[in-house]
Amino acid sequence: MGWIGPVVGGQEHEGWVVPLFADGAQGAGTTSARGVLVARRPDDGPRDGDRVRLTYRDGATAEGVWSDGTVLGGHGIMPADAGGPVHCEVIDQAEEAEEWRPDAEVAGWVAGCTCGWRGTPWARVTGWELADPAARRLAVAGPWADLEAADETRVIAEWRRHIAGWQALEDVEAAAARQAAATRALDEAVQTAVAAGASWADIARAAGLTGRTAAERWSARE
Q1: What is the distance of C-alpha 206 from the center of its chain?
Q2: 19 is a domain residue
Q3: Is residue 128 part of a domain?
Q4: Could you report how far apart the first and last alpha carbons of the chain are, in Å?
Q5: Is this prediction's pTM over 0.70?
Q6: Are 115 and 11 within 8 A, CB to CB?
Q7: Contact criterion met (CB below 8 Å) for 15 and 29
Q8: Per the domain annotation, does 142 fall within a domain?
Q9: Which of 92, 110, 133 is the last residue of a domain?
């Protein structure tokens, strides 16, 4: 994709510049000589050749290949309603079902995040004299849709503001983990000192505590 962000509560926050098309379609984050790979819309549903996973109401799952409204698996056609599948998830798109569009059709860009967030769109103009970042107009000349480095920085700055809170939470988690590790290391060091015959006064002085506080904290762990 692009920029690696924080992972908080199991949710990844990876950012990238999402190409936009005039009909509302968005790029999937992959480009090649064929152009820009178009992302599936949530309501598009599977296409022939896609590998899908059916999840039924009882929690059972089954995987197969989508073909003309049915799912073909190792045991033939899988039921699409027996037990009532509650979810049909595309787990691997068929290459022949992919939609690619030429870079020239890109009408703008928006900052995106893997959590589903999207920023405010930026419009594409083809003449440098028409570019105006303050008015959210960015210029890309020629057949490609790659932004200039300065413009890419402008777009991704919105994603960085989006993840600021998540980044702070990740920093809190990391600091808490370091503190817990330091506490365990201190406890182990105190146990070693006690076993070696150190007094509570000496341990307290080394730990920056009073003798009474040190004794209350660690004596019960001996």
Answers
A1: 44
A2: no
A3: no
A4: 52
A5: no
A6: yes
A7: no
A8: no
A9: 92
Rounded Cα gap, residues 175 and 188, in angstroms: 20
175: in domain: yes
Using the Cα atoms of residue 170, residue 171, residue 176 and residue 179 in order, give the sign of their dihedral: positive
Give the domain range for residue 85: 42-92
Q: 19-33, 48-62, 139-153, 178-192: which range is least confident on average?
A: 48-62
Tell me the pLDDT tens digit for each residue of 129-158: 999 999 999 999 888 899 999 999 999 999
The partner residues of 83 in beta bridges, in order of sequence, read: none
Cα separation of 70 and 100, whole Å?
A: 25
pLDDT averaged over every residue in the chain: 84
Span 56-82, mean pLDDT?
Answer: 73
How far apart CA 59 and CA 83 sit, in angstroms, is 10
Q: Which of these three, 62, 92, 122, is where a domain ends? A: 92
Strand arrangement of the beta sheet that strand 27-32 belongs to? 27-32, 35-38, 100-101
The domain tally of the chain equals: 2
C-alpha distances (whole Å) from 179 to each of 7, 185, 186 are 19, 10, 10
What's the token pair of residue 177? 């983990």
Q: Rounding to the nearest 10 degrees, give the CA dihedral for residues 30, 34, 37, 43.
A: -170
> Residue 206: is it exposed, middle or buried by C-beta count within 10 angstroms (0-12/13-18/19+)?
middle
